[in-house]
Amino acid sequence: MTHPLEAIKNLSTSFKLITKGRWYYAWIAFLLFFILIGVISYVKQFNQGLILTAMRDQVSWGLYISNFTFLVGVAAAAVLLVIPAYLYHFKPIKEIVLFGEMMAITAMIMCMLFIVVDIGRPERAWHILPVIGAMNFPSSLLAWDVLTLNGYLAINIFVVFYVLYKLYMGKEYKMSVIWPIVIISIPWAISIHTVTAFLYNGLSSRQFWNASILAPRFIASALCSGPALMIIIFQIVRKASRIEIADSALFKIAELIAYAMGINLFLFGAEFFKEFYSRSIHLAPMQYLYFGLHGHSNLVIWMWLALIFNVTAFILFLRPKTRENYFTLNLACVLIILGVYIEKGLGL
Questions:
Q1: 233 is a domain residue
Q2: E strand spans, the chain
Q3: Taking a C-beta distance cutoff of 8 angstroms, is the pair 230, 260 a contact?
């Protein structure tokens, strides 16, 4: 068994190996620039209140929750790599599954940061913590959200650090150790986006959100945008490093995206038919989004654009000829990311 001091030394050595080169420091400087802008903006918001974000009754959840919802989907999408890698032992994806789990970790951290800046008074977060506060579990959906998000983050951190540590020490990681965690992570990945959907779903005063089809649509769209982002990142990693990522892995992910987008579009069509065929009072939100209502039509072009993006990407991913051509593959990935982001951002 490795001594804790040796483990710390190994971690320090690893950090020194990856923090070399001007491109690394240029990238860090680029990120720090935007982090600084974010910190300055948050300080202003903290002093002057959430009115700076223009949130009000009509726009109760703004850009913060839109990004939170999108990033939860990105985090949940790691399951699309975990299932073929660990359950079906598909070697090309098994070689890159850790990248998907690392991406899930970063997405989860960003999700939590968006929640922190959205609640306005983060110092009061202790009220929901167990022991020192009251979680109101299981009646509170917020408590479920805290448990699912933090649990999924912990699962991915454990798997990634355990596997990387074993590989760094020149040893094989034991499947008997990570197998139970992997099995738990699959339904847990689905649960984080399900609970996120339920946060919208439970608000009966918002008819567009108060639909039972919302959670399945959230999951289906997450399994499109997240893997699409992974495909682009994997290509960058392959080009910028000596890490080998097989074409077959990227093409298989693209094929899985096609199935997920097909389900997403089917669910959208079912919801669209239900609202416009029944012509009930609950039609107003969807009519406002796609056709305008009482002269208000600012979002119409964006919603149709998102739908066109998603349908076009679905067709490109569905055909093997375009799915296995890097120009059309990357075009479809960008279209899906934009389409789902608009759908979950402006569309909610």
A1: yes
A2: none
A3: no
Is residue 4 included in any domain, yes or no? no
Please report, for the domain that includes residue 292, its CATH number. 1.20.1630.10
CA dist 75 → 227, 270, 281, 331 (Å)? 10, 26, 35, 22
Give the pLDDT confidence of 182-219 residue by residue, as tens digits.
Answer: 889 999 999 998 998 898 888 777 778 888 888 999 99
pTM above 0.85, yes or no: yes
- 10 Å CB burial of residue 35 (0-12, 13-18, 19+) is exposed
- Domain encompassing residue 142: 49-344
| Cα gap 229→336, rounded to integer Å | 9
Q: Tokens at residue 138, please?
A: 């299981």
| Backbone φ and ψ of 54, nearest 5° | 65, 20
Residue 14 lies in a domain: no
pLDDT of residue 20: 66
Q: Work out the angle between the directed axes of helices 247-278 and 300-318 (0-180°, nearest 10).
A: 140
Q: Which whole number is the average pLDDT over 68-79? A: 89
pLDDT band, very low/low/confident/very high, at 50 (cuts 50, 70, 90): confident
Residue 103 carries which side chain, given as an amino acid letter?
A: M
The residue among 83, 80, 86 whose CA lies nearest residue 255 is: 80
Number of domain units in the chain: 1
Distance CA 255, CA 318 (A): 7
Domain-embedded: residue 11: no
